[in-house]
Amino acid sequence: MDSRPAAPERPGTASRPAVAERLVHRAREARLAGERTAAAPRAEIDASWDRVLRSGIDPEQSPESRLLETDEIEHRRRGTALGEVMPLLREGLATIADASQQIMVVTDPEGRVLWRQGHAAVMRRAKDICLEEGAAWAESATGTNAIGTALAARTPIQVHSAEHFIRALHGWTCAAAPVRDPRDGRLMGIVDISGPASTFHPATLALVGSVAALAESELRSRHLVAIERLRAVAAPLLCRLGGRALVVDTHGWLAAVTGMPPVDRLPLPKSLEPGAVWLASLGMCRVEPLPGGWLVQVAEGGQERSPRRVVLDLSRERGLAVHVAGPVGSWTRRLSPRHAELLYALALHREGRTAAELAEDVFGDATRTVTVRAEISRMRRHLAEVLEHRPYRFREGVAVEVVHPDVPADLLPRSTAPVVLRTRTPAGTACPAFGRRAEP
Predict the structure, then answer these.
(1) Tens of pLDDT, residues 280-331
(2) What are the DSSP calls for 253-299, one per residue?
(3) What's the pLDDT tens digit per position in 361-383?
(4) How far is CA 75 from each of CA 2, 78, 252, rounded to the nearest angstrom?
(5) Rounded distance, CA 186 to CA 309, Å?
(6) Whole-number Å distance between alpha carbons of 141 and 63
(7) Cα–Cα dist 176/192, whole Å
(8) b/e per residue 24-45 (b: at least 16 CB within 10 A)
(9) What is the pTM of this model?
(10) DSSP category for residue 364
C-alpha cells in the first residue's frame, strides 16, 4: 500500500466543472480564514489571492468604483493606439462575444475600461458589477479578476466563478490578455471577454490571446508603413542637408538619419514645437514639422551653441516662468511654485547645493532629499541644458537673472520656503536686490 501523502487537489484538473467549482470555493474560504486545504487553486490564482489579501480588499465589498468622466474617457481613448485596432477587435472578438452571450472589454494600462461591446442583455447585467466604461478593474480596486490579474501578471489568464476574490463576481467568467506596443514592449492595455459563469468555455482564453497578438501585429504593420512613408519624404531632404540630422515620427521613432550613427528612438519633449529646442541626447537642435513627424537638425559647435542666458521671472505669482536664450534661439517654460523655489535657491547659490541643502532651503528639513531629487529630475527633463547635478547648480558660463516683484512681500507670496522667507523679510540679506534684476 502506498503510504505517500496525497497530492493537493487542483480544481482545474477536476473532471466535472461543478466539482472543480466547489473545490475552488473551498480553497477560497480556507484562504480567507487564514488556512490551507488540500484543494489548492491554480498557481496564478493562488498568487493573485495573496496579492489581494495583502492589499486589504474586502471580499464582501461591492465591485463598484468611481467612474471616469466622459471627457477623461475620450482623452484616454485618443491617447492610445488601441483605438486604431478597435475595428479588428470588434471583428475578432465582439461579434463572437455577442453570439456567445458575453461582452468584449478593452482597458488602458491602469485597468480603466475604455470600450465595451457585445450581447445587449449581458451589457445591462454588467452594470450591476460596474463593468462599464470608466470603471476601475485593476486588482487593487476589484480583487482577482481576469483584467486586473492579467495586468498584474502581464500574461493572459482566465478567471472563473469562485476564483474571483470578491464574492459578487462569482456569477461571472472572464478571460483576458495584455496588448503590448510592438515597438518597445510597453503595456498598452487589456483585451477581455466576460460573461455569466454559465458561458464558460476553456477555449475562450486561447481566442482572446490570439486576437491580442493579431492586434499587436496590426499595430506593428501600421508603424512600419508610417515609417516608410516618412522615410520617402525624408530622403530628398537629408540629401540636401549638411551636418547631422534625423527624421523621426511624432513619437521619436527613427525614419532616416545623416551624419551620425542611427538610433532606434529619439526622446522628444511631450510638447514639441518648431524652432530651436534643446534635446538632452543631442544638445541644441532646430526642429521642423514634416507630414507624420519631425526633421531634427543638430546645431554644430558644441558648447559654443549652448544656452547663454537664463531669466527666472518671479515678478508675478500667476506668471512664474523661466526664459532660456542662446545663439540659435530662445524658449520659455512656465514654472510651478515648487520649481520656482528650487530655481531661486540655485540662483542665489551659484556654487551649487546638495540635495540636503536644497531640502533645508525649500522645506526647512534637510531630510527631505528624496522629494528634492524627484523635483529636480522633473525639471532637468526640460532644463538639462542649463542645470547640472552633483551638486545641483546652473552650468558654468550661463548668466542667470532673477526678475523680482516691485514689492518684496510679493515674492512667491504663498511660499513658506525658508530661502524665500529670508528674502521677503526686511532684515533679510537679499532685500537690496529688489526692484532690479539680480545677476550673480
Answers:
(1) 788 888 888 888 899 999 987 644 445 578 999 999 988 999 988 765 456 7
(2) BEEEEESS---SB----SS--SEEEEETTTEEEEEEEETTEEEEEEP
(3) 999 999 999 999 999 988 877 78
(4) 63, 5, 21
(5) 38
(6) 8
(7) 4
(8) bbbbbeebeeeeeeebbbbebb
(9) 0.64
(10) S
